[in-house]
């Protein structure tokens, strides 16, 4: 049985998950082609190799294109080069449900705010809201494999359930104006496509790092882990990390809740190891380590 073990010593987010799978051999060209097939065209995927405390990792940025770029460029940019720089900033008027706005300290000399999930994402020409049925229709409309479709639907379903629980509503009334954002859809659906490409039969995860602190959002000040994140991770085992700041995003939590089980490292033959890069600097390597092996 082919197993993916995510070693979550520094947390997990959608871009860290996708980055780790590309580092393990998932084909970004095919991922983008399948994302286009579900009507997700208004983005460019920037991928580069990055040194994080001496460890080479795959760093992902989802760049939301404006109308002119969208018409001019349906391709993506995935230069694996340490000197790669991004010609963008994330100026999309992010208003947050529970705001995941972090100052990311990239080594290529600029800082910007990049919200992984759960944010009001209103790019200039893509300001539309999505409910769960809208996202379900998108996922089912393209050329994704049955396994990738099922995985993506599971992730969004558990995310909707957590949001409904936190906000005291029902799943059919959950408004995906944040998770429906292009970058979050790319992270979640792209990860499910990559898992299918790598023929992963089972995902296991390590003990999770508990962090503390607060985040400012549209509702006021919320504690970390964010309420939806913590709702998703009921039943998971944590250890205190001693870190102030967000380590696990709702996207990362939903991926684990829907697709993974938590265990000690299994007895298996290791085939490959890959690292997905995060954007924070809390004094430890901001990395998600993916280990593929055979049980």
UniProtKB/TrEMBL annotation:
GO terms for molecular function: lyase activity. Keywords: Lyase, Nickel. Residues 81-109 are annotated as: Disordered. It holds the Pfam family Ni_insertion. Transmembrane segments: none annotated. It comes from the Bacteria. InterPro entries: Ni_insertion (IPR002822). This is TIGR00299 family protein. It comes from Desulfosporosinus acidiphilus (strain DSM 22704 / JCM 16185 / SJ4).
């Amino acid at each position: 049985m082919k197993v993916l073990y995510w070693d979550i010593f520094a947390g997990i987010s959608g871009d860290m998950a996708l980055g780790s799978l590309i580092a393990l051999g998932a084909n970004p060209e095919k991922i983008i082609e399948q994302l286009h097939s579900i009507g997700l065209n208004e983005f460019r995927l920037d991928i580069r190799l990055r040194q994080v405390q001496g460890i080479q990792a795959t760093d992902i940025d989802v760049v939301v294109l404006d109308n002119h770029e969208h018409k001019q460029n349906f391709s993506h940019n995935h230069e694996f080069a340490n000197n790669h720089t991004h010609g963008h900033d994330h100026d999309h008027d992010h208003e947050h449900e529970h705001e995941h706005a972090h100052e990311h300290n990239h080594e290529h000399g600029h800082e910007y705010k990049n919200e992984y999930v759960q944010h009001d994402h209103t790019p200039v020409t893509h300001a539309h809201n999505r409910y769960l049925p809208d996202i379900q229709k998108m996922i089912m409309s393209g050329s994704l494999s049955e396994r990738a479709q099922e995985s993506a639907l599971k992730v969004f379903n558990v995310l909707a359930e957590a949001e409904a629980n936190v906000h005291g509503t029902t799943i059919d009334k959950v408004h995906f104006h944040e998770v429906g954002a292009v970058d979050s859809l790319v992270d979640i659906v792209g990860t499910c496509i990559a898992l299918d490409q790598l023929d992963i039969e089972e995902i296991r995860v390590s003990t999770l790092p508990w962090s503390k602190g607060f985040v400012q959002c549209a509702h006021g000040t919320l504690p970390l882990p964010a309420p939806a994140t913590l709702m998703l991770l009921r039943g998971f085992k944590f250890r205190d990390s001693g870190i102030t700041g967000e380590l696990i995003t709702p996207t990362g939590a939903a991926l684990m809740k829907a697709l993974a089980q938590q265990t000690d490292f299994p007895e298996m033959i290791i085939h490959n190891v890959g690292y997905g890069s995060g954007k924070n600097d809390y004094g430890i390597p901001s990395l998600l380590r993916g280990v593929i092996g055979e049980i």
